Each structure stands twice: as C-alpha cells, then as structure tokens.
Amino acid sequence: MARFAHTVTVTALDRGWFEEAAGTLVDLLDASREGPGGSVVLADGRAVEGLRLLKGRHLRSGARYGEVPAVPEGAGAAGPAVEAADGPAVLASGAGDSPAASQAVVLRTWRPSHSVEVESLVVEDGMSLKVGVRLSEPRRPRAVELSLSGHQPGGGSLYRFSGRGKADLAAWWAAVDRLPAAPPAARAPVSGRAVHRLAKARLTLTPRPTEDGSWRITVVLSMRGRWLLRPVGAVVLFFARGPVERGLREAAESAAEEWNTALAELTPLHGEALRAEIADALVNPDGPEAL
Hints:
Number of strands: 15
Oligomer: single chain
Mean pLDDT: 84
C-alpha cells in the first residue's frame, strides 16, 4: 500500500452561519412550486435558473429535473423526447454529429426535517455516470453521503468503477472545537473509497484548529492494487510516487485557495437579508451584473 499526505490551512467557516444558510435554502426550495413549462418558481414568483421539472410531481419522490438540450442552429426540428429505462429524457435529433451529453437529477427523497436524497444521471461520450447524494437533517446538516458508479456499456470490467464517501459534519464541528494543543480526532470526519478492478483507494480529511482560529486540514490518500495485481501495483506506485504526491499537493492547495477566496467574498448576512441573498442567487447565479 502507498500512502500520501498533505496539510493545508484554510479559513474557518462559522457553524451558526452555515446552518442558518442551509436551513434558509431548504425552506426556499420547500416553498417553491411548479410553474409554466415545468419551471420551478419560488414563493415570490421568480423562476429558479437552470432547474426544470421534466417528469413527475415537484418535490415528490421520482421527480426528474434537468434542462432540455437546445437544438443546434440549422439542425432542424428536434425529434420526440426519448427516455431510456430509468435514464434522463433527451431529445432525439436527426443530426449526424455526436450526441450532446444528457443529464438529469432525480429526487429520491424530500423530507426537509429528516433527509434529502438526489441522484444525478449523466451520459457523455459513451460513459454512463450515476452520482447519489444524501443529506441528513438538511435544515441543520449532520452528514452528507455520496455514492458514485460509472461504466461504459460494452466496455467490460476495466471500464467500471465505484465509490462511496461520507462527511460526518457533527464529527467535523467537534474536531474543530478542540483546543489547538489537543491531539487530532481519532477518526477522520470525511472519508471516501474508490474501487476499480485493478486498484482501490481511500481518501480522508482530518481538521484541527490553530491558534489564530483557522483550520489545518490533513488530506491522506492511500492506494493499493487488487487481487493478483498487488505486486504489479506496488511497482507502478513506486515509480509513480512523485507525480501522485505532486498531484495531491497541487489539488489540495488549489482547493484550499478556492475555499479561502469564496469565504473572503461571503457577506455574513443573517435573517431576511440572508434569505433575499440566497433567493437572488437561485434566480440569477451569475449575479446582478449579468442581467
């Protein structure tokens, strides 16, 4: 097994503000309704950008959301909608070009006081990808669970992979509430596993507070070959150790920079001001300058 680790420092996120923002977002969506043409309309009558009901009843199990792909200019009228079994609806076109990626989000569970579960279905360049997300206690999030599976039809087992991950937010807040001199949490609050026929990997994130109030997050990646390929995998990882270490370091540093930039731009609004800000972001994600 090969093990890689890197630690980054990021700006701390205020728990109270995060939970208030999450609850406000859930309440806004819970009060929304279906509008003309399948649009999703907030209580104030404005449509949520990029979210359209394709099938089922809004905020009911099995509801399917997405955007109908636009017909390329000069391609002529699109054919009827075609829907694969348990797959996203797409428009059938007579164009000879490669088909555009099709995507849909299926709502599996909507119980704002208990859990929300969605599943994203994507087909692009012959690869089928399914991503599931489950949020526990959405108004005051306690955990986020992620599942991932992908395959290329007819491609065999080498073109299949899967993964699972979980962010225990209660454990995360407990870890960052420790004294800076205290040892780090014994169990990583964020962990994930990925499995392929040839190898498997595990990723963990463990935070700890610093004296200045920021967070130091240690990212650990473990990789190993599977079955009879373990010796081969060990040799490959020996020669690839440098690029893997560099890739992990660059990815962690980039993510930390983006996190710090995003938090620096956040205005710590509360109450009705926060609600209005989130509603405006749902209606116009690009901001008022794009209007």
